Amino acid sequence: MASKLLHMVILWPPLLAQKFGLQHLSNGHFLWENTKANTEVSDMAKQYTENGLLVPDHVITCLMVSELENRWFSEDVRTNRSPDLKTKIYEVDLVISLKIPFETLKDCLSRCWIHPPCSRVYNLGFNPPGVREIDDISGEPLVQQENGKLEAVAARIRQYKVVTKPVMSPGMLHHFSGMETDKIWPYAYTFFLTRSHLFSPKRRATCTY
Known about the structure:
The protein is 33% helix and 14% strand.
């Protein structure tokens, strides 16, 4: 018998894929890949991101639906209106939310810079390049995406607070609070071990903090 597929919506950038053998689907990753390829979907997405808005469900679904045949968890699935990402096709097992002050989140997101050719991401606060605004490996300039600029980040956070309410349903939802990964991770990892029945035995991981 095939092992049960674990379907998990997680509302913070995780360290879980490598520990539990999961496929990580990130809205940001798919948007960036499509932007590099200059696809029709990326043109639709730019209408929102360049104005500090969250990309709506139907656009995100176009980006992600082809990946959902595999074991997955998804970062930042925001609403319950997208049928391909919720229970009409896939039964979601868990919804995980990391609660941090929005001022802290705004500051963190506005410090993100990327190297477009290879999608390397830097954060000026905790993962800065050796030379400011220069990629460590290629020596090429880093860029800040339009939706990472301070005004756009503030608008995204305001909208995010509204549209995430539908997926914050009791029963599936579990919160973790904090701002430092090293302090939060042991609690998160222990929690997922208690849900180990959701994972294929061959894919379970050991923990190194």
